[in-house]
Every structure is written in structure tokens, then in C-alpha cells.
Batch of 4 targets.
Target 1
Amino acid sequence: PDTLKRYADKGLADKVKVVVTAGTIGDGNGGQELTAVLKEHKYDYKFVEVDEGHSWGAWRGLLDVVLIELIGPETPRR
């Protein structure tokens, strides 16, 4: 609840980009609740839900998605 309140109250929408990842196994609905707040306050965000639990395996599998979303795709070397 504190995290949801911070994103709703702080006026950060024009300052940050957010990537939310969640699993369908044992993660509850926190990801959906957070993305609802982000959408309502017009944040630049991406939500990715995977068919896994809250584990390193799930995070490892999404690390490339998160990094590309936050910093962009790799630029070809010359």
C-alpha cells in the first residue's frame, strides 16, 4: 500500500519511467494494482506478467526486457 500511495501522491509521472513485472503464481494482484495507479496518473510504464512465481528465474528471464525498456535497444557497433 505504501508504494501505491507514493506513486499516486508524489507527482513523479513526468520524471520516471517504470517497468513492472509480476508472476501469475503466488504474486497476488500487486502488479495490476500498481499499473492501475500508474495508468491513472499517466506514467510512462510497461507491465509484463509471466507464468511463473516470485523468483530469480522469473527476474532473470525478464532482465533483458526491463533493460531494453529503460535504456533502449543496443546500438550497433561501428
Target 2
Amino acid sequence: MQERAKQIVVDYFNSHMDKTDGKQIGLEDVYVVWFCKTLQNWKALLSTNVRDGVYYEITHNGDKNETYVDVYKKWENYAVRED
């Protein structure tokens, strides 16, 4: 399951990366941040070692045998102080 999720990220990245950058990644460049499996369903949050601020949410629906891919870009991270 986790290897399948990693392969989905590799395939997505390599097919969407600007060809002029000449960058391709492999399974070794993808890591699982979080993974959970419940019955026939699973979800994984993944990222790559590419410093682009993108992370991937892969969700598998076992009832329909479908896997959904959400790609997110981190725009900002800041703290809000609670007084």
C-alpha cells in the first residue's frame, strides 16, 4: 500500500514537472509522513525531497477499488500567539 502510494507520487511528479528543469524522481525520493489503514480503506500523506513545498494525500476506497490523489502546495507557515 505504501509502496503503491509512493509510486503514484513518482508518476505524478515526473509527468507534471516542467521538462526544462530536467528533474525526475524515484521511489527513494518519496517518503511517507503519515499512513492509516481501516478495513479495506487506507490513506497516506507523502512528500518528496524536492524543495517545492508540495505534499500529496493518497486515499484508497476499497469498496470501489479506486484511489484518489490530492496535491497541495504549502504557501506559508506562521505562528499566531494566543494571549
Target 3
Amino acid sequence: MKYINPFRVYSHLPKEMYTLFIARFINCVGGFIMPLLTLILTVKIGMSPAQAGLFATLSMVLQAPFVILGGKLTDRIGSKKTILISVVLSASAYFYCALQQPNVTLAILLIIAANLQAIAYPAYNTIVAEFTPREHVKRAYSLSYLGLNLGYAVGPMLGTFLFTNHLPLLFVLDALTTLFAGLTILLFIHNRNRLCEQHEHQEKQAVQNRSALHFFLHNLPLIVFSLCMLLFSLNYAQWYYLLPMQTAFLFGDAGVKMFGLLVTINALIVTLFTPLLTAITHRHRPIHIVALGGICYAVSSLLFAVNGPIIYFYISIVFLTMGEIVITIHANSFLAERTPVSLLGRVNSYYSLVTGSGNALGPLIAGYILTATGYTFVWIVFAAVVAFGSVGMELIDRLQNCKKKSRN
């Protein structure tokens, strides 16, 4: 049988995409803080689960204007400059965090650092579409996502070992890798290419009388898609909120390192299977694949709900990661395919605002349900939520498919 190399799916992409891959890898190798945020709030600062959930929600809510700002900056000054501004500001904030004791002041500084990082969110999604022909954009998003998770395969595991006795060092390393990633982008990604300028010229007449917000609000499939993704993010938020507390509750001090191991397993599975799943699914309709990814999320949550032996957590991570891979790749490509390049930065910010609401509300909702019931019931609730989102995705897909057939 002839060997098929799944990594060939990343061949012949623009050179800027390989630079972005390296930059995201470097950045995420030092991305210690956000995966460990719940543990910093509860173990180091001493917050209760409900307080930590409220704090995480507050952090996400306050990110909204920064995401909108990032979208506007992306469309006005370009993705590269926007990323560099975010990199310098957020790295400075993390350096300052290293000087603080674990207290409320540190918690506030973490909010500020997260907000400054959020400025770059729309730019990272937009820069892929700026430099990549549309027929290859799905593969380019896949490569960017792979670089991000290769970094997470290393960073969180190292972070859990330094967490107990060397918390300030985590902030310093996070800041340094952020700056180094920004330097990589500065040196090797140049101005937007002719492809982007050509797309903008072709689309100018179609969008000149409409704002990005008008475009977003009058695109019903895009709105419904974003709302379903909000439900997905409610579930996915528990990956970094509910799960670390659950492992610590079940396994004590070993639970912290176990969570780090689960994060690393997640990243390694992404590394191994992202090229393969990209090659298998890239010819299929994006929303249909995203709906299947939601089902994987639901199965994963039900396995976490068993609240039992470690093997269930490992199996659950497999389903969670498979869902995460196909959802991330196809959701970003769906958005890029339906949005003019000249509006993509701002539309990405509105989309991030809607889906980010799920990340903000997820910890808050889970914290209060957990206080009243227990881990099993919380996971069952979120399994039902994400299953409902998958049904919504499938309905959008079928309606759009029917419209295409009727036109033909």
C-alpha cells in the first residue's frame, strides 16, 4: 500500500503562513498563564470556585471593547501592526505581573494582560486570509492552528511544574516568548500582498455603502452560525475552568500535574491528527463538519461526567480534541469564505465578541451550578447545550444546501 503523507496538505502555501506558524508556536510555548488561570485564582490567590468563575467571566466581558478595537485596527493599519501593538503591550503587562504577590492586585493585572492580548485576536484570523488564495485558506488556517497547538504541547506541561514554587518565572517566560514571536512577525512578514489588494478592489463596489456591522447583522447564516458557536464555546470554556478544578478535587495535588498532562495530550493529538483531518474533511461543507465536531464535544462532556477513573479523562480528551480540530479549522474558513477581505478584521471581531460571550458566561454558569449540585450534573448540562448547537449547525447546512440545489 502506498504511503500517504498527510503533511502534504501544507505544501505550496504562501511563505507568510510558515512564518505565522513559527510565531504562533513560539508564542504558545510560553503561553503558561491562561491555561493555569483557574488554578492561579483558586490555589494561589484563594478564590472559591464561584468567585473564580465570576472573575473569569468579568475578564472575558472586559475583553469585548479590546476585540472590537483589534478588528478596527486590523482593517485600518493591517494585521501585522495590530499584532505587534498587542504583543508589546501584553508582554509589558506580564513583566509587571511577575513583580506582584498572589493577591487581588495580581488578579486585576491578569485581566489587563488578557485584554491587551485580545487586541490581536481578529488580526491572527485575518492575516491568514490576507496572504492566502481562498481555495487554500482552509489549509492555511489548519497550519496556523497546528503551530498554536505544538506550542501548547510544551508550554502547559512546563507551566504545571513551575506553578507551585516559581509562579513569577511563568510570567517572565510568557512575556519573553510573546516578544520573540512578535519579532518573528516583524522581520519575516512584510506588507499585505497584491492578492489582498486585488480582493479589496474587486469587493470595493459591493461593500462601499455598508459598514462591517451592517454586513454582519444582515447576514442571517453568519449570525445563526455565530450563535451556535457561542453554545460550543460555553462547553469549551470548561476545558480551562471546570476540568482543572475537577482533577484537583478527585486526585489532590497530583491533579494539577494530571491536568497539565491532559493539556499536553490534547496538543499532541492536535499535532498528529490536524493534517490528517484537514486532508479528509477539506472537500466537505464546513458547517456540516463543525456540527460533527460539536457531537464530539458532547461525547467528551458525558465522559467527564462519569467522574470516575483516570482512563475516562484520557478517552474524553481524544473526543474533545477531535472536535476542537475540525471546529477550529472549518469555522474560520467558513467566516473567511463569506466575508470580503476589506471587512474581515471587523467581522472577525464581532464574531469573536459573540463566541467570546460563551467563554465569558461558561465559567460563571458552571460555577453556580457546581456549587448547587456537582461535577457530574454540570457536565451533563453542557453536553446538552453543545448538542443543541450541533443541531442548529446541521439545520443551517441543510438549508444552504437546499438553496444551492434550487438555484441549480
Target 4
Amino acid sequence: MSQAPDTEVLLRERLAALAPLSLDIADDSAAHAGHGSAGKGGHYRLRIVAAAFAGKPRLARHRLVFDALGDLMHARIHALVIDAKSPDEA
């Protein structure tokens, strides 16, 4: 019986579509134990630097991230804090 891939591994695989120059993922789920929706997915912080964000406003950057993550946003992620920068801003 195979084990489901770790959520962080899936995040990295999906975000590879944005060709990040740097990518840091922190799992903050333990800090939210007992939270009303804690069992419906993890809490993550994401810092990503990619040329795909150049010239785009914050909302457009977040949409790029959400699009890349797809169904993970409904299945494995309950909360996601995103810090998305272009290479010039990093």
C-alpha cells in the first residue's frame, strides 16, 4: 500500500510550474491545533521568488500561486500565507 505524498512535496512539485528562483515553505499546522477547521488541511507560509511575478500586482501574484496549487487549496491546505516577489524585489 503506497503512502500519500507529503503536502510540502506536492507544494514544491506544483509551484515548479512558476520556475521559482527560491522557494521556502513553512508548515505552521502544529500552531493551529484545536483550531475549528484544523482537520480540513494544513496551515502553511510560502515565500517564493519568480520572474513570473514581475510587473504584477499582489492579487495577480496570489492568483498565479493558487492556479499552480489547484485542488491542493481545497484538499490539503486550509490556510496559506503568501509572500511572492519578483527577482528585482528579492
